[in-house]
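Example 237.
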Amino acid sequence: MNDPKSRLIVALDVAGRREALAAVRRLSGHVGYFKIGLELFTREGPGLVEEIRDTGEKIFLDLKLHDIPNTVAGAMRSACALGIDMITVHASGGTAMLEAACAQARESAAPPLVLAVTALTSLSEADMNRFGVQGSMDEWVGRLARTAYEAGVRGLVASAREIPMLRRTMDPQLRLVIPGIRPAGVAAQDQARTATPYEAIRAGASFLVVGRPIMQAGDPAAAADAATAEIARALGS
Ligand code: C5P
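Predicted structure in complex with cytidine-5'-monophosphate:
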């Protein structure tokens, strides 16, 4: 955690294996983790995860698991066998599911960090009200975060907007993984609540997820280095 680069996760949101491996080659040594999401995993499967892992890189498998405890435990077993470093589950899967996921991770030879996704940032308060959830989004996220923590989860995916509330109310050791990061001077694209690497780290982020600002840059390694420089500045000041 002391190396600013180790806090940078690049989202490998590309169409397939060839593009993914080219990005890994270009960015190796410039980022801490490569995030493989549902699109790439569904297309290329576990073989690509192993291929990237075998290059020595760290992997965040963003599968957002959400099913009955037995099924999630089985999926966790399969995922852990791939030698991954981080994996996501939905906090709304409930206590038994979260406990099963953590227990399965602990059984692995090298347990990955289990991260709980609280409320998807695409959900609005109107969506929550339609589900019968009253109160603010912060209250709902806080409730899901506490449920995950009590079940043994020690990392959360959250938006930059929620960092202050989570840092005020939760265990300071909790790892916060923050997407929606836009380095200074980069367009927000479809992300609504963005923060710069500097702002997010200063607010208390542990890791930052950056996709397009690095992957679509003319020089992705230089874009990653610029994000790392901002992280370093935030940690140093
Ligand atoms: O390209 P961009 O930097 O917006 O990519 C952000 C990555 O983080 C994407 O892989 C996206 O799926 C993921 N993510 C997000 N917001 C969340 C959870 C995950 O943008 N709440």
